[in-house]
Amino acid sequence: MFPLISSTSAGGKAGVSRREALRLLGLGGATALLASSGGLRAAESAAVAAGVKLSGQPGFYRFKIGAHEALAFNDGGFAAPFDQSPYAAGVADGSAQIAETLKKAYLPPDKVQVPFNVLLVRIGTEWVLIDTGAGSAFGAAAGKLRAQLAAAGLGPGQISAVLISHAHGDHIGGLLDDDTKQPVFKNATHYIGRREFEFWMGADPDLGRLPLGAEVARQMIAGARSVLGALKDKFQLVAPGEKLIDGLEIVDAPGHTPGHLAFLVSSGDEQLLHFVDAAHHHALTFAHPEWAFAYDAQPSAAAATRKALLDRAAADRLRVFGAHMPFPALGHVKPIAGGRYEYVIEPWLPG
Ligand SMILES: [Zn+2]
């Protein structure tokens, strides 16, 4: 996205001239000057002089899982107001404990960042997309996956398989084009867990005593049924343990939704566990895996799944990916005293 420009092409050892900086910055906003600190300063000054607004963050990250090429995409995200935080549902002094845990993690005390991440893995000739981001379900805060794919040089037509972990809006919202209501990933085989599909499409999906209330439950059910219903003839229904693609294992991870799935990608000695929504926040959920998350359909099953997956990741020193971990959402799970965990963020590498 940001091609490097050598100091020579950018105007010589002394950095770039103001005119050259303006010319380069004028290339559709897609050119960055990193020739030297002098060149960078000149480019910044030129940008300010030209009224260029510097904004946005890179939203894709390329890495490898053994022989497999992989990309993490940020679909967007938002800051949850602290008083509506869903992270300690039913905990008596939940707000105070959240504040204390955020403080210990050097995070802002008054709001909780919720990034949305999507994983793409190239296995042999297959481009396998795990979940699709939010589409328009979260307004302008998310739905950036298609733009991020384009930034990485990919189009939705190249995706050959789409795996859906569960039918919440931030995971299935990108399946249908808003205007045409047609599948975005039109060349892809679509997979979803049979249990998940049958839960949402059944006569009366039971979200238990969802602490967010009946209206939120009604909206979740309507959203899921509308997307799954539109794609009901396209979906292939799968079960945990089923072999779809060599190097990709479907892992049972129920609780957040009844048919929630996780995924284990393997190549040679390397593995990546995508735990999806089995853990929702890198500080809060790891420090307090026993806390119920307000959107969990089955809180005790969700807590058991969380413990099982985090224990497995810790014991096997697995590299992990999570839909709501800090982008690019790669890390490891470190066990600490009292059945708690620490999320260890993987260093970002240029590549
Ligand atoms: Zn989610």
Low-confidence stretches: 1-37
CATH superfamily of the largest domain: Ribonuclease Z/Hydroxyacylglutathione hydrolase-like
Structural class: alpha/beta
Rounded mean pLDDT is 86
Bound molecules: zinc ion
Supply Rg: 22 Å
Q: What portion of residues belong to β-strands?
A: 25-35%
- Major β-sheet strand ordering: 1-2-3-4-5-6-7
**Proportion in helices:** 25-40%
How far is it from the N-terminal to the C-terminal residue, by CA?
Answer: 12 Å
Major sheet summary line? 7 strands, mixed
Kindly give the count of domains: 2
Q: What is the β-strand count?
A: 14
Order of helices and strands: HHEEHEEHEHEHHEEEEEHHEEE
Task: Quote the CATH topology of the largest domain.
Answer: Metallo-beta-lactamase, Chain A
CATH class of the largest domain: Alpha Beta
Task: Based on the coordinates given, report the CATH architecture of the largest domain.
Answer: 4-Layer Sandwich
Structural notes for this entry:
It contains nine helices and 14 strands. The protein is of the alpha/beta class and 351 residues long. The protein has two domains: 55 residues, no CATH class; 286 residues, Metallo-beta-lactamase, Chain A (4-Layer Sandwich). It has a seven-stranded mixed sheet. Strand 4, helix 4 and strand 5 form a beta-alpha-beta unit. Helix 1 crosses helix 2. It is globular. The chain starts with 17 loop residues before the first helix and ends in a 6-residue tail after the last strand. The structure holds zinc ion. Zinc ion binds next to helix 5.
